[in-house]
Each structure stands twice: as C-alpha cells, then as structure tokens.
User: Which sequence fits this backbone?
C-alpha cells in the first residue's frame, strides 16, 4: 500500500518555468514532510522539509506548500534551470520516529 | 567528512550466488538505514538500526535477506541466494538525530543478478 502518492512521475519544463510536483498522504499521524533530490548515479539528498504547523516554506527557488485538511503537499521550483533536472521524492514520517515513507519519485527534465 | 561510503558500487552476479553489500555510515550518526530502489516500487526501506541494534526489519523481503551492524562504523546487507528479481540499487543512509529525520544517503550499489 502506497502511503504517499506522488504525481506526476515525469515532468518536462522549459528553462525559466515553474515545476510543480504534488503529493498526497493517508496517515494523519505523519508530521514531517521532507523532499529529496536525486541526481543520476547519486543517492537522494534532503532538499527542503516542512512540518504541518505551517502552510508554506520557501528556500531560494524551492517552495513547499502544505494543505493539512486535504492531506496534500507540493513542491514548486521557480525559475527552473537545467541543473534542476533530477528525480524528486516527497516523503513523510511521524515525530520521533526515523522510518520515512517515500513517494514513487518524479523525474524532472528542464529543457533550455 | 567523506559522507556515507558504500561498496561495491556495482555488483554483477549469477542467480544463486551470495551477495554482500557494505556500508560505512557518517561518524557519529546513531541511525543506519538500508533501502532498495527500483523503477516499479521506488525507494523501499528494508531495515534500520539504532546504535547497532536492528529496530525495524519489516521491509526485508524474505529470509534470503539479512543485515548486520557489528559496530558503529560498519554494516552489511547480505542476499543468499540471490535471484534476478533482487536486481536494484541498494542505498545505505545514516542519520544523527531522532527528531530531525535528516538522512544522508550513500552513492548506492547497483546490483545485477543474471
């Protein structure tokens, strides 16, 4: 059973555009929502994370939007660059518990 | 710090053979995780350790898989006997703090079982 549903699985965006990746979860006990970025041949790396007590978190060109009532969260990449081309994973976990559940991943390609 | 170190980076083996994957976590990290990544299932947690003790192995697919952490700086994931469906990229990750959930991943081992 996939506890964190992620879409789309692939995304092509033109340079300078906005990339949007969406995730939804079932378990209301989740209270930490990280996003990981993975380049080919590398392991995933933590990009940005949010807790449900805020509706938005921004770090540079990356923004997480969180809708607790809808149990949805999304990653927006503003002014997308070819260097952003990677696979992005949303994830969720419960407080004080190290087990992280990952989404299926979204392969983003930013074309010039 | 060198980050999480995994070896080998690539492993090709024949069905039925034993495979051992190795991981050295970041020094000082209390938690160590083994993941498997495939196109169909994405990233799956296999097992994790806290202070060298296995905490949750519910993700280990079957008895052919075993993992050990004999000390704070070394862990192994063993598959015996290996099968073609075990072909995947296996990641090791480590984490220093319980609450932060910040996991540092190694570069992975790409396993191919023919």
Assistant:
């Amino acid at each position: 059973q996939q506890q964190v549903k992620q879409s789309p699985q692939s995304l092509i965006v033109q340079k300078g555009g906005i990339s949007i990746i969406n995730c939804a979860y079932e378990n209301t006990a989740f209270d930490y929502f990280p996003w990981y970025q993975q380049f080919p041949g590398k392991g995933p790396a933590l990009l940005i994370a949010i807790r449900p007590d805020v509706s938005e978190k921004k770090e540079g060109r990356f923004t997480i939007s969180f809708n607790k009532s809808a149990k949805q969260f999304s990653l927006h990449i503003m002014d997308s660059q070819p260097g952003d081309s990677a696979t992005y994973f949303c994830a969720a976990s419960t407080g004080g518990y190290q087990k992280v559940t990952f989404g299926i991943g979204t392969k983003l390609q930013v074309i010039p | 710090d060198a980050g999480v170190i995994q070896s080998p980076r690539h492993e090709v083996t024949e069905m039925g053979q034993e495979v051992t994957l190795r991981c050295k976590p970041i020094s000082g990290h209390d938690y160590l995780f083994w993941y498997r990544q495939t196109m169909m299932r994405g990233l799956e947690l296999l097992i994790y350790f806290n202070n060298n003790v296995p905490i949750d192995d519910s993700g280990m697919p079957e008895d052919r898989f075993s993992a050990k952490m004999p000390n704070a700086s070394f862990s192994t994931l063993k598959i015996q006997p290996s099968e073609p469906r075990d072909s995947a990229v296996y990641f090791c990750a480590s984490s220093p703090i319980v609450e932060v959930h910040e996991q540092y991943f190694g570069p992975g081992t790409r396993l191919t079982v023919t």
Q: What stands out?
A: The mean pLDDT of chain B is 93. The interface with chain A takes residues 4, 31, 33, 41-45, 48, 50, 55-56, 91, 93, 95, 98-99, 101-108 of chain B (CB under 8 Å).
